[in-house]
Amino acid sequence: PKHHFGEYKGAKSREAPANLKPVGTGPYKFADFKPGDILTGTRNEDYHVKIQPHFDTIEVKGGGDAVSAARAVLQTGEYDYAWNLQVEDEVLKRMETGGRGKISAVPSGDIEFIILNTTDPWTEVDGERSSVKTKHPTLSDPAVRQAINLLIDRDSIQKFIYGRGGTATASFVNEPKQFKSTKLKYEFNIDKANKILDDAGWKKGSDGIREKDGKKLKYVYQTSINAPRQKTQAIIKQACQRAGIDLELKSVTASVFFSSDVANPDTYTKLYCDIEMYTTTQTQPDPERFLNQFVSWEVATKENKWLGRNVSRYSDPEADKAYKAAQKELDPAKRAALLIKVNEIFCEANVILPILSRTRVAASLNNLSHDHSGWDVDSWNIAAWYRS
Predict the structure, then answer these.
(1) What are residue 387's phi and psi, to 5 degrees?
(2) Where are the beta strands (DSSP E) in the chain?
């Protein structure tokens, strides 16, 4: 509404008071909102469904970590519901034995994946690193990227860390099935990775690290602070060592990593590192918008405040062409084939390395009835939640 936002257009957009106390027609009204901490709401007496919502107040607690959130529901019963529980499945199973709550894991299009940076994160051009005007000194070599993809033990990551939380995959898009590539396959093969690097002229030095033309295969591999992610990093680092690749592991507080703060060098959209890992969410079953992360006009840059959806910076004219064709294609099968092609181009270039097709994992108290979908935010139907 103009009377709420009219004075805060452009550069002042983040200063609008209504950002923290929005006007809407939902089941709850904002009472107080402290970003990164807590949100409290009260029942909207004018909600369009007369008997809803069923609770007088709502409290949403942010910050902290996934294990603490799970514990607050499954063990202490302090909270009714916890979302996005990227926690080792064995830990969740132990918590469930207390009998206070239960885990639900539903299929989704979310993907835990790695980006290999083909731009140079260590050279600044016009005030930004990882500029599309640069080329990565070693990851721009397709053989290096192919070798790294072979050094990810996806099956072990699924079996020993995620369990119900994900399924190993080589495809960026996994759900719905008609949009998943049947061509993309994954393999864990250290010997094969070594041979590829040997054939490409990357020789091991006295320190065991491969190099060519004075450039070493040494990388900074970053992700957010989260136990499953740190364990995944360790598994991949160990395999890379056996192939002569040295990884420096970096972990960033989630509230910083996923921030949109333009002054922060450690946000995931800046990609000021060689290798990066996180989950991107597919919020609707149709993957068209999800795949705009692979088009050239969505590249994250200083100019767009690093809000472009293509964090990898990689682009391919064939992917752009297929994406634009899919936007106009009315035949469902032909359209799906075009979107699958976009996915395959990036995965076959080994710029995007899918690891797990993630489920949406949440915890709730046994007496809370809630709707949990893999295709929307957890609170999509919160007006209908009730306690039995």
Answers:
(1) -105, 130
(2) 28-34, 38-43, 57-61, 81-82, 101-106, 111-116, 166-168, 203-204, 210-212, 215-216, 218-224, 246-252, 275-280, 352-358, 360-365, 368-369, 386-387
User: For 111-358, which CATH class?
Assistant: alpha beta
Categorize the per-residue pLDDT at 27 as very low, low, confident or very high, splitting at 50, 70 and 90: very high
Residues 342-359 pLDDT 10s: 999 999 999 999 999 999
Whole-number Å distance between alpha carbons of 294 and 159: 29
Q: Where are the domains of the chain?
A: 2-107+360-387, 111-358
Per the CB < 8 A criterion, the answer to whether 172 and 162 are in contact is no
Residue among 376, 279, 378 at smallest CA distance from 79 = 378
pLDDT tens, residue by residue, 113-152: 999 999 999 999 999 999 999 999 999 999 999 999 999 9
Query: What is the C-alpha to C-alpha distance for residues 153 and 114, in angstroms, rounded to an integer?
Result: 13
Yes or no: say if 157 and 82 are a contact pair by the CB < 8 Å rule.
no
Task: Indicate the CATH number for domain 2-107+360-387.
Answer: 3.40.190.10
Closest CA to 386 of 102, 101, 81, 97: 81
**Structural contact between residues 111 and 353, judged by C-beta atoms closer than 8 angstroms:** no
| DSSP three-state, residue 150 | helix
- Please measure the distance between the N-terminal and C-terminal CA atoms of the chain and give it in whole angstroms: 39
CA distance 277 to 371: 29
- Asked whether 57 and 41 are in contact (CB, 8 A), the reply is yes
